[in-house]
Amino acid sequence: MRAAFDAGHLVRTWPMRGTLFVVPAEDAGWVRELTAAKVLQSTERRRAELGLDAATIDRAEAVARERLAGAVVGDPASGLVRAELLAAWQEAGLTTDAGRGYHLLFHLALRGVLVQGPMAGKEQRFVLAEEWVTAPRTLEREEAVRELLRRYVAARGPVPVEDFCWWSKLTKAEARAALADMRGIFLAGAFFAGAFLAGAFFAGA
Question: What pTM did the predictor assign?
Answer without folding.
Answer: 0.86
